């Protein structure tokens, strides 16, 4: 029997519905409708993926021994459960709108001591970024195999590219990011202590460097990051031209 702790939340379903509405609008003839459709695809799809990212962490932790994630409501796909809504949804969405770099969203609080092994702790951290990578792969696959209208293909491709960027960003071994969580269980006690101290500010410094490096004459940093992202995007079958068109349509209303 399905319990209240495992039901999909109506708010999550509304995000999926907004994304689906965007897909419909993107197929219509008037240009404003197509642009509105792309905006809904990107915003609704990105918010949905934030929930799935955190759900990936939670369900992996649950299977790895941490039963507290169910009591905390993390298995409901409810955006309100993933820490503060402003930090978990609003701020990451704002970064997508302003710069196209998906800031890491919320977090689920895992009882690390309840997990069975260091390997399980690594898998819990990896589950979120891998969710983004799989979503990017699936979206790119839909675009490549289906004969979609141009605006719909562009919106889905840009959303797929954002998933890939999120994967590349989150998998970096920097304190506060999931990539560091993958290696943290295997580090020395001193390295773990340093990581805990750096965790609150290191991700923001990274995003700041990515945003400001062109102004500081360090554009090779941003170019290198996006070069890796485009490389991974190509590996999952993404179309850079469709993604570029989707980004242009998404930012048209700004």
TrEMBL record:
Its main location: membrane. The keyword DNA repair does not apply. The keyword Metal-binding applies. Keywords: Cell membrane, Hydrolase, Membrane, Metal-binding, Metalloprotease, Protease, Transmembrane, Transmembrane helix, Zinc. The chain crosses the membrane at residues 86-110, 122-146, 158-180, 201-221. One of its GO terms (molecular function) is metal ion binding. One of its GO terms (biological process) is proteolysis. It is found in: Cell membrane. It comes from the Bacteria. Residues 47-143 form the Peptidase M50 domain. It is a multi-pass membrane protein. PANTHER family: ZINC METALLOPROTEASE MJ0611-RELATED, ZINC METALLOPROTEASE YWHC-RELATED. Belongs to the peptidase M50B family. This is Site-2 protease family protein. It comes from Saccharopolyspora montiporae.
